[in-house]
Amino acid sequence: MGQKTHPYGFRLGYNKPFKSRWYADKEYADLLHEDVKLRTELKDKLKSAGISSIDIERAANKLVVRIYTARPGIIIGRKGAEIDKLKQDVQKRTKREVHIDIQEVHRPELDAQLVAESIALQLEKRVAFRRAMRKAVDSALRFGCKGIKVRVAGRLNGAEIARKEWYLQGRLPLQTLRAEIDFGFAQAYTTYGVIGVKCWIYQGENIPRRGSKMQEPRESAAA
């Protein structure tokens, strides 16, 4: 069996930040379950907004939810009506002071999670899997990524036996710690069963500064 390491977990704390940023002693399990449930519900509720990831920060009784989306207008709504409604809904559920920060993903073609979800959506609409994969690969390369790999697995084209198909273009150094690898996973619920979609996108190398790996450089004393 191959020994696989998750591309995000491998680089966590080195050139990838934590998606939940808070500290707790006794309430750790409750807060962890609250984070998982909140992410799941927001992803389901805002499915049409193209959610890439959701970061959560906690401080005392405050909760900051940072949503990275390709279509921020859907979440914000006209004159901010939708985001106010969403904020009140989260406050009721968590009973905390909630602040929602919307961050736009400017190039969704280079976001692995959005690419995987786009392919899954096309498979659900009965688009040929090879066509959907090639389209995603070509778009990413056109927008300047250095390498992309896309893999689908399941009953492709309604075949009786499940199989895996993948495309790789460019470089994909998964063993290199400083490589800026973005990973995404999605599932397509088709007539024939569930088809899994995975996507890896390589955008170059990010070399952290020496010392504390995720901290910003301190201002010099002379300044």
TrEMBL record:
Keywords: Ribonucleoprotein, Ribosomal protein, RNA-binding, rRNA-binding. SUPFAM superfamilies: Prokaryotic type KH domain (KH-domain type II), Ribosomal protein S3 C-terminal domain. GO terms for cellular component: cytosolic small ribosomal subunit. The keyword Protease does not apply. SMART domains: KH. GO terms for molecular function: mRNA binding; rRNA binding; structural constituent of ribosome. InterPro entries: KH_dom, KH_dom-like_a/b, KH_dom_type_2, KH_sf_prok-type, Ribosomal_S3_C_sf, Ribosomal_uS3, Ribosomal_uS3_bac-typ, Ribosomal_uS3_C. PROSITE patterns: KH_TYPE_2, RIBOSOMAL_S3. It holds the Pfam family KH_2. Residues 38-106 form the KH type-2 domain. One of its GO terms (biological process) is translation. The keyword Cell wall biogenesis/degradation does not apply. Belongs to the universal ribosomal protein uS3 family. Part of the 30S ribosomal subunit. Forms a tight complex with proteins S10 and S14. Binds the lower part of the 30S subunit head. Binds mRNA in the 70S ribosome, positioning it for translation. This is Small ribosomal subunit protein uS3. The lineage of its organism: Bacteria, Pseudomonadati, Acidobacteriota, Terriglobia, Candidatus Acidiferrales. The gene is rpsC.
